[in-house]
Amino acid sequence: MLGSVAEADDALQEAWLRASAAGTEGVANLGGWLTTVVSRVCLNTLRTRRTRREDLFDEPPGSLVPERAAGGDGARDPEEEALLADSVGVALLVVLDRLSPAERLAFVLHDMFAVPFDDIGPMLERTPASARQLASRARRRVKGAETPPGRDPVRRRQVVDAFLSATRGGDFEALVGLLHPDVVLRADAAVVPTPEPVVVLGAHTVARGAMAAVGRARFTGPVRIDGAIGLAMARHGRLAVALAFTIVEGLITEIDVVAEPERLRALDLAVPEGR
Predict the structure, then answer these.
(1) What CATH number is associated with residue 205?
(2) Same domain, 126 and 154
(3) What predicted TM-score, i.e. pTM, was given to this entire model?
């Protein structure tokens, strides 16, 4: 619901305090009552969550490009956050983060936990029919637009998955093998950060830059960006960086690294098929 283990812990603790204060004697359906309490706590958290872009990484954004990498061993990041990203899927987390709090609650409770709309409606102070519409609208956004014609989504997914696997594993040679010798990486100013966007040329140079982002790769997953498979980097379920790829004959020829908030908001993100 929240995309963050830490926030989930806080929500559960607050729900426990409320339950302890109110008492549960006479509650006929304790599970349903607790589900309602926790859901409302999560709803309040989503409504009050700061909208500004947060610095969610130990290392500064410059680690995405070579010769600007900085230290940071990721000690602030609990292993549970990485496990959450893998189990739920980074794409789903970042798409959920774009929904309204009411849409998110309706979709998650119904589609992921099979809570009936008759129970969801009162949590949102809406009718069950209205809750159903919220979940349906969220479902369409999660699914996204159709893949543009003329692309080979299976092959593209294989290449992007291999890029992520090689980055996570620190396999420099495998990365070089996926990149066209004249590959071009463009990173906007917010990625580095610098006053101007950065352009990196050549397979070996781009691969060295990817090696500097091994820690972040734990919080990265495939996502559809404007209909084509790409990668999203997120911490606590909030999109920080997106990577769009141009792939020709099985090799990556261009990588566009996006971190500017305005550009991120303009991207059409969706969960890849098969998730």
Answers:
(1) 3.10.450.50
(2) no
(3) 0.79
